[in-house]
Write a structure and sequence with these properties.
147 residues, Cytochrome Bc1 Complex, Chain D, domain 2, 2 domains, binds heme C
């Protein structure tokens, strides 16, 4: 038995008695980096695909323009409620993923434009504040669900 196994170890490496364990051990150790490497490569691949899932795809220039408008005009209320409004401005994330707006009105572009232009409750009217192009950009950004 031991003769056979030392024979085996002799094939791999060196001295048959005693050292075979070390040889074997070394072989195990030598194998680990390979696995580690394999794992690293897999994790890398996985990381990339996870990043693909989690990180948000790039915004188009129009969406990015809308994001900027949202951040300077809407977020202080809708994200921070910095005026401490009693009626907390609703979260606009995923606005268009529901069929209705927080008020129950249909979640359509036309309706959201109308709210932005006319204001609602404590929300001011933005009539005349945005060009058509800016309004479209804002809507495009709202459609991303606010990335
Ligand atoms: C001064 C704070 C304030 C600002 C600034 C503000 N909002 Fe609002 N917004 C509110 C409040 C409060 C409500 C809830 C109104 C209500 O239902 O009485 C609201 C509601 C809404 C709604 C939901 C309407 C509905 O029918 O449920 C949308 C959409 C919206 N805001 C978009 C925006 C966008 C886009 C901007 C930036 C251009 C913006 N708001 C800026 C306070 C604000």
């Amino acid at each position: 038995m031991s003769a056979v196994s030392s024979g085996g170890y002799t094939l791999i490496g060196k001295i048959p008695e005693g050292p075979p364990i070390r040889t074997h051990h070394r072989k195990t150790v030598a194998w680990k980096p390979d696995r580690a490497l394999l794992c690293a490569v897999m994790a890398l691949g996985l990381g990339v695909s996870l990043a693909g899932c989690h990180s948000k795809p790039e915004l188009t220039p129009q969406q990015a323009a809308g994001k900027h408008l949202y951040e300077v005009r809407c977020a202080h209320c809708h994200e921070d409620n910095d005026l401490n409004l009693k009626k907390v401005p609703p979260n606009l994330h995923g606005l268009f993923s529901q069929s209705t707006l927080p008020s129950g009105a249909p979640a359509t572009d036309a309706q959201v434009r109308a709210v932005i232009l006319a204001g609602k409750g404590m929300m001011p009217s933005f009539n005349g504040r945005f060009t058509d192009q800016q309004m479209s950009a804002l809507l495009a950004y709202l459609h991303t669900g606010l990335r």
